[in-house]
Amino acid sequence: MGKVEVSGGAIRIDGKPVQMISGTIHYFRVHPELWRDRIERAKMMGLNAVETYLCHNLHEPHKGKFDFSGMLDLERFLDEIHRAGLYAIVRPGPYICAEWENGGLPPWLSVEPGIDFRCSNPAFLEANDRYLNKVLPMVKKHLYTAGGPVVMMQIENEYGSYGKDRNYLEHIRQVYLRNGIDVPLFTSDGPCDWMLHGGTIPECYQTLNFGSRSEEAFRKGREYRPEGPDFCMEFWNGWFDHWGEKHHTRPAKDAAKELDAMLKAGASVNFYVFHGGTNFGFMAGANGNGAEAGDYGPTVTSYDYDAPLSESGDPTPKFFAFQEVIRKYRKDAAFGTPRPGRKQSPGRVKFIESAPLFGQLDRLSARRHALKPLTMEACGQSYGFIHYRTVIDGPAEENLYFPEVRDRVSAYLDGEYLGTVYRNDANRRIPFRLKKETAVLDLLVENTGRVNYGPLVGRDLKGLPLGVCIGWQSQIEFDIWNLELDDISKVEYGEYRNAKEVPAFHRGYFEAEAGADTFVRIPGVKGVVWINGFNLGRYWNIGPCKTLYVPAPVLKEGRNQIVVLELHQLDVNSVKLTDKPKL
User: Fold this and answer.
1) Is 126 annotated as catalytic?
2) Would you state the pLDDT for residue 197?
3) Using CA of residue 570, residue 571, residue 574, residue 577, what is the dihedral sign?
4) Contacts of 521 (CB under 8 A, 6+ apart)
5) In 115, 201, 244, 410, which residue has its Cα 20 to 30 A from 49's Cα atom?
C-alpha cells in the first residue's frame, strides 16, 4: 500500500516528488471495448496518468436507481488504467460541466421540491450525498493507498465560476473523508481572482484550468497558494464545437510550446482532453447564460476536440508534437507510435422501410393528458423529444405564439407542416389559416441539449414551459407523448416513403466487417441515427460536423441495421457510410 501527499511544494508518491503528466479520457464517451486501446495510447505519448470525470446523470438516471454497467463500468475503467501502469485522477462532480448534458446533473433533480443548485441547499445536498456515498466506496477500492491507481480526487468542479458557498465545498470534503478517501483532494478553477475566491478552500490542494499564458496563470495562483505546487488540471489544447459554428482547431506547435513552458517550470499538467470521444445518444450539452436572446449554443455530437487522439482514436499531429516535448522530461517513459485504427467504407445503404413518427407515438410512449403542456422533467422524462397534441378552434387566421421554446418546436395542423421555431429565433410566431371549425395541432419539441455551464445549469427545463398561444390566448387540453427513444424496437415499418416535412424513421441494412470503424455521412436536414440499436447521436446539416462516428464494436460481421429518424426530409433514399470523418 502506498502514500500520496502534497507537501514541500510537490506532489509526492511514496515520498518521492512526481511531475504529473496526465490526459483526460472520459469512459462514458468511449466504447468500453476500446478503453484499453485508448489508455495504451496515452501511455505511448508519454503520460503517467489518466484523468476522468464521473457522470451523475447516467449513473443515477432515476432517483435512487444506479447503473454501472457497460459504458458506465467505472471500476473496469480504473482497472484498465491500473493494468497499464498509470496513475488515475478522478473527478466525481456531481457537477462536471464537460460539455455534457446538464453539466452531469440528472434531469430529475430539476423538479425536486425546494431545490437550488450547487450550494448548501438541503434538497441538493441530499441528492449530492446519496450519489457520492454510492460512487466513493467504489473509487476507494482503487485508491493508490489501497493498491490501486487513483492518486488524486477533485471536489466539485470549477466552483468559483458559479458560486462562493465555502460551507458547501467543506460539506463535500467531509463526505469524501467519511467515505475513507485518503488521497489528496483538490479544487480546479480559472486563474482569476473571483474564481479563486469562490472555488478554493484551505483544506484542498488548488489547481488551475487554462489554455495559454501559463506563467501568468501560475503567478495568479501563487497569490493564493504560495507553496504550490503548480498544476494545470485542464490544459485546453483544443476546443469543442457548437452546431452552426466552424470546427475549432489549435495549431500543434502553439500548444506544444505552452506545454514545454509548463513542464520546464516544473508544473504538472493534465491535457483536457487527450482523447475526447463522442457525445453518443442525447448526451451533448449546451452553452448559454440567458443574459440575452439567441445566446444558446448546443454542442455537436463529436467531441473530437482537436485533441492528441482523434474521435476515432487515431494519433494527430498534436500527439507527436506533445510526445516530442514530454521526451525531454520523462526520458524513461514507454513511448510508442500508435497505428491508426482500421476503417471501412461500406458505401451507400438504401432505405427500404419507413415509419412516420406520428403513427408510432402510442408504440413509443404511453399517452398522458394535461391541461397545459408539461415539461419533460415534470413528466419524468430526461432526453429526446416530447410531443404535444391539442384541438384548436376555427375558423381562424392567426399566429401560433411560443413564449418560450426549449429547444426546437415544429408545428403541424391536421398533419400539414406549418413551420419550426428554434430557441434562438427572434420571431417565435408561426402564421396559419384554418377554415374549418376544428383542427388537430401537433407540436414536436426536441431537447437539443441542456445547458452545462453557468446559472442555467439545472434550470434548463425542456419542452414548452410557457405553453403555446393563438394570438395571446393560451391553449389548453393536451395529449402528451414522452419520446425518450431509448428503445425503438417497437417501431412498425411499412414501405419506404420520403415525404417532405413528415418526421419519419427510415431503415436499411448493410454488410460490414468486424473490427473496423466507419462514419455515417449525415443523410438529411436534422435527426438521429442508430446502428444495431446503438444511438450514435444527433446530426444537423448546419454543421460543422458532417459525419457521425461508428465505433468498430457497434458493428457486426455481416448484416447490420441502420435506422435514421429524419425530422424534415432525407436528401436521397440512402445514406453513405465512409472511412473518413468530416468535422
Assistant:
1) no
2) 96
3) negative
4) 546, 547, 575, 576, 577, 578, 582
5) 201
Active site (annotated) includes residue 234: yes
Please check the confidence at residue 291 and state whether its pLDDT lies above 80.
Answer: no
Cα torsion at 77, 83, 86, 92 (round to 10°)?
20
Q: Which of 562, 576, 563 is nearest to 505 (CA)?
A: 563
Q: Concatenate the DSSP letters of all residues of 361-426 into one string.
A: HHHHS--EEESSPPPTGGGT--SSEEEEEEEEESSEEEEEE-S--BSEEEEEETTEEEEEEETT-S
Rounded CA-CA distance 47/160 in Å is 28
Tell whether the model's pLDDT for residue 293 goes beyond 80: no
Q: Of 247, 143, 258, nearest to 211 (Cα)?
A: 258
For residue 1, what pLDDT is reported?
Answer: 80
Distance CA 127, CA 129 (A): 6
Encode pLDDT of 326-340 as tens digits: 999 999 999 999 999
- Going from the C-alpha of 264 to that of each of 36, 257, 258, 325, 327, the distances in angstroms are 30, 11, 10, 10, 12
Cell numbers representing residue 471 in the block = 394570438
Can you give the pTM of this predicted structure? 0.98
Residue count of the chain: 583
**Residue the block writes with cell 434562438:** 424
In degrees, rounded to 5, the angle at the alpha carbon of residue 522 between the alpha carbons of residues 443 and 580 is 160
The active-site residue out of 51, 158, 484, 566 is 158
The one catalytic residue among 51, 60, 101, 234: 234
